[in-house]
Structures are given as C-alpha cells and as structure tokens.
C-alpha cells in the first residue's frame, strides 16, 4: 500500500495485512476469545486465521444454551410455491440476541432432540436420520428409521423385525424425542440412545446398520427415558425401572413416594449420576439425585443450578451458575407458548422467560422473537449448549 504517492520502500511505516500475521500470534489471540460465537467469527475471517486457530478449542468456558426456535412453514400468499431457504432462528442467551444460521441440512427435516451441541434430524418418514452440529456443520449419519430393528438381548445378528410398521404410527412423534450419549461422540464406543414418546427406546453406535430396541416390560405410558453408566432408566408416573444393557432380562423397580406420584417429572443425566426434576402444580421445582445404594431419591441443593426447559415434552438441560456469574442459581429458563384471539383469528404468542424455582419471580427475556406460524399444540423450542465437538 502506498502513502502520499511515495515509493513503498520509502514509507515511514507500513500497514500490515492482518491475514499475514504469524500463525503463532493468531493462535495466541484466538485463546483470548471466550464467546463461542466470537470464536466462530474469528475463524471465519480468512483461511489463514482458520488454519492457525484450533478447530476444537479447550480454553472456551461452558457456554450458555441457545434456544432454537421450531421452524414452521408459513404459507406465502403471493408465492405459494416459495421453498424453505434453510435459515433457522436461534436465541443466544449470552449475547441476548437472535441469530440467523444457514442450515440447509434442516430443510425437509425435523429437529427432534439435542444433546452436547448436536441436533438429531429426522426426515418426515424416517428414511434419513443423522446428527448435525449447527456451528461446524459436521454431520454424523445414523441408521434409518425404516431399517430393520433388533431387540436388546437377542444374540442373533439378524434383525428381529421390520421397522416400517414399527415406526409407522410414530411419524408425528419424532419431534418429541430425547437423546443422550453414553460417552463423547468422538469415542467409537459411544452409544446414542433415543426416546420416542410414548414408549419407544432405541439405541445404536455410529456405523451400526440398524437400531436396537430396549423393552420396558411395562404396558404403561413412558414419561421419560435415558441411558447412564451401562443402564437404561425408564420413568413412569409412579415408578422408575432400571435395565442393565448387559443383562436386559433383569429389571430393578423403584417406586416413588406418594407425594411425588402424579407430579410431572423428567430425567437429567449428569457427571455424578441421574437426577429427577419434579415440576409441582404450584410452580415449585425440585431436583433429586437418584442413588442406587441404597435405592432412593435424595433432594439436592439447587442454589447453583439453572434448568433450561423447552416445555413438558422436551428434555431439560441443567448447568451450574458458577460457570456464569451473570446468572442467578436456583432458577429455571423456559419458553411460553400460548394463543390469543385477535379479530376472530388465532395468533401465536411466544416468549422466553426466567423464573425462580418457587415461581414467584418471573422475568420475560424476549417476546415474540420471530414470526412463526402457530400450531396447536404448539411445538416447543429446542435448548442446546453450543460446542465444537
């Protein structure tokens, strides 16, 4: 670059192109970035910065969850044939703003569940199933829901039955699924468990040709299910069954105390075990840790815990408030779906709010963050914690 028409060799100083910073300097700068969204922007500046910064940074602190708003096609009266452009809306709680991500992989797919930064995407008829990281656009293919299904405990390598009829009546329930990983997804032994309401629990490993079904041994409505440390947990209204993956014929039954019967509950899996989140009719939220020796539920302190809940048909995501001093513990973040009548037409009311566990203090974070075609019952959003792995 020339200055005052002087020859470049005679410049008193030169402007450096940031793209040509030494790689070790770029890496040092990248480690100063603490927000995952800023880190994504940093790596997108140019190819040099992208290659000099770590693709899987370990210096980033735990990130606040994002809420992915459900995509519901809104008919365009001027152009009825307008196609989905793949743009999805996500509310970034940390920066307090709505983000628009181009995710063409989600076109004609249902975002059914999230876990450890990955989304479970299923085609309408279940012919295609895969995991997607919305930040890196990495994709992991999973067995189709139209593939034959095995039964846990069946020693034969041949599938037990055809999955076409197995999933046929559950096409509309894929959007109410939950998902867990047994270990990190990068581990070849990672078991991916999916619970499809009302009572389908299946699992697979990356590369498996088909899914394997876990039988609950109960002809009752299954509220929630998860996998932790070699065992499947089945949550009912009044009890919980525990089934070992290596001994599926054995079953441990745990009956809840009378005061917890008929209370809305969900399962959380954490580093130290399984938790039960109880949502009482008065708005109070209690968290219990499940202990097997002896078999009981033990109330835990919630002073440093924040629970993120899409709705009663979505899994809960808990984080520790010590990771983010700007948030108060003992609180819950939820979304509110509702309808009100305007000019005899039903219009959607949608907001994200926070509340303390006793329900006395409610603060709306954002109201009607994006235009959405309403449905009844309304589809909930999807909380997920952004990460690179």
UniProtKB/TrEMBL annotation:
Top-level lineage group: Eukaryota
Pfam families: Beta-prop_KIB1-4, F-box
Domain F-box stretches: 21-53
Residue ranges of every copy of the KIB1-4 beta-propeller domain listed in the record: 90-344
Designated name of the protein: F-box domain-containing protein
Naturally occurring in which organism (per UniProt): Rhynchospora breviuscula
